[in-house]
Design goal:
Radius of gyration: 17 Å
Mean pLDDT: 94
Number of strands: 10
Strand order of the largest sheet: 1-2-3-4-5-6-7-10
């Protein structure tokens, strides 16, 4: 497998110096980068900068709402960049399972998947922990989504931190989607599930005590990274992606990314 960095992890640096940050990520030893925004640049410009940095643009996180506003145009842009995958990173509360709009969302994801497929791109869905609530049939919401949409239109991008937070064993869950898990997110953390976790990823802000929950560089938290990597291999993953939404332990974003790849260099992936 190859190792990429989710570039959201270094978003401040990307905003200031897109090309320079890509070069630093490559110098650390990462094979690829997963986009989370283009920072006002065209697809052509982004492709040229990835090429200059020697980094592979494996995929991009693009919101459901943005995709539905211009499916054809956005898919063309990421195809021009060279992305093999586009991932829906998150569904806001009003679009989730159990809401009036959800059946429409499922149909929308199918439509996005069709356009991606026609352009040689695979659509992925990136989970958080809220998809590990149960449906009325006793299935997890995440499993219900994958059951509702065929694998040729939607593949998984399993975020193993949120699987753990959601109460499942990350390695077992990755293996559950063998053959449908081309990209797996590696994310480490410490502490326990709490009400204000999403404040850490800039989505929701609550005042409740965090119960010590924080993201960590790989190998510095509670996750069994080698076991998860082994499961990703077994599942047929092409890429594992390191991600850390917020830096901790007094480290900068770039220092955190460096710590993660330093750890990965010492395990078998």
């Amino acid at each position: 497998m190859k190792l990429a960095l989710q570039l959201y992890s270094v978003r401040d640096e990307m905003e200031k110096d897109f090309l320079g940050t890509l070069k630093k990520v490559k110098e650390m030893g990462y094979d690829g980068g997963e986009l989370a925004g283009l920072y006002g640049k065209s697809g052509k410009e982004v492709k040229e900068m990835f090429d200059e940095a020697g980094l592979i643009p494996i995929s991009a996180h693009v919101s459901y709402q943005d995709l539905m506003s211009d499916i054809d145009g956005l898919v063309r842009t990421y195809k021009e960049i060279g992305c093999k995958y586009i991932a829906i990173p998150y569904l806001p509360e009003e679009l989730r399972y159990g809401t009036e709009k959800y059946p429409e969302i499922v149909e929308g994801i199918k439509k996005i998947g069709e356009v991606c497929k026609n352009n040689g791109i695979s659509l992925l869905y990136h989970n958080h922990d809220f998809e590990f609530e149960k449906t009325e049939n006793g299935d997890y919401v995440l499993d219900a989504l994958y059951n509702a949409i065929s694998s040729d239109l939607l593949q998984t991008e399993i975020d193993t931190c949120w699987v753990n937070v959601g109460g499942e064993n990350p390695s077992d869950y990755v293996r559950k989607y063998t053959g449908r898990a081309p990209v797996v997110h590696l994310k480490d953390f410490s502490g326990r599930k709490s009400e204000n976790m999403y404040k850490l990823i800039g989505i929701e802000s609550k005042d409740e005590k965090s119960d010590g929950f924080e993201f960590r560089p790989l190998g510095m938290g509670v996750q069994e990274i080698q076991s998860i990597v082994d499961a990703a291999k077994d599942a047929g993953a092409e890429w594992v992606v390191a991600e850390q939404d917020e830096p901790t332990l007094g480290l900068s974003r770039l220092e955190s990314a460096q710590k993660s790849i330093d750890y990965m260099k010492n395990i078998n992936y």
